Amino acid sequence: MALQVLSMKSTPLNRIAVLAAAAALLTSCGVGGDDEAGSPTKFSVVPSSIKVTGPTGACAAGANGTVFVYGGAAPYRLSNTVPDYVTLDRTEVSHPAESFTVTFTGGCLDPGTIAVEDSLGNLVTLTLTNAKGS
Q: Of 134, 126, 117, whose CA–CA distance to 64 is shortest?
């Protein structure tokens, strides 16, 4: 099937049909769609929050959690906004469905965040809490 080229001799109805087909094709390829870079999943981190509790009267130290990044456009840059309370095992995640590890280093935290930015500038956050045990 050949795609008709728009010309001065095309009727307005033909022009509209060709433009509508082109828009549908671009949307199906991920251009102009609702999801980031044509990704079949929404840009997110799983879990979206981590809460740890320390021993009686203290906050946790050494506890860790694994976080997976989905959707969006790789690579993903990680920004630790609370480096005095947690460490990350990396600063970038290269591919969708890969993970990073958060380790709590001590000190109470309610809340803290890790910002995850995809290559298109979209942001999601991981919320962190480190509470005293009772």
A: 126
pTM metric for this prediction: 0.70
Q: Is the dihedral of CA 3, 34, 41, 98 positive or negative?
A: positive
Whether residue 134 contacts residue 108, with contact meaning beta carbons closer than 8 Å, is answered with no
The HSE-up count of residue 109 (CA atoms within 13 Å, CB side) is 25
Element (H, E) at 25: helix 12-28
What does the domain layout of the chain look like in residue ranges? Answer: 9-38, 39-133
The predicted pLDDT at position 8 comes to 47
- Position 25 confidence tier, pLDDT thresholds 50, 70, 90: very low
- Least confident window among 17-21, 66-70, 122-126: 17-21
Q: How does 13-47 read in b/e, with b if 16+ C-beta sit within 10 Å?
A: eeeeeeeeeeeeeeeeeeeeeeebbebeeebebee
Q: What is the mean pLDDT of residues 58-74?
A: 96
| CATH classification for the domain delimited by 39-133, as one of 3.40.50.1820, 1.20.950.20, 3.40.50.1980, 2.60.40.3450 | 2.60.40.3450
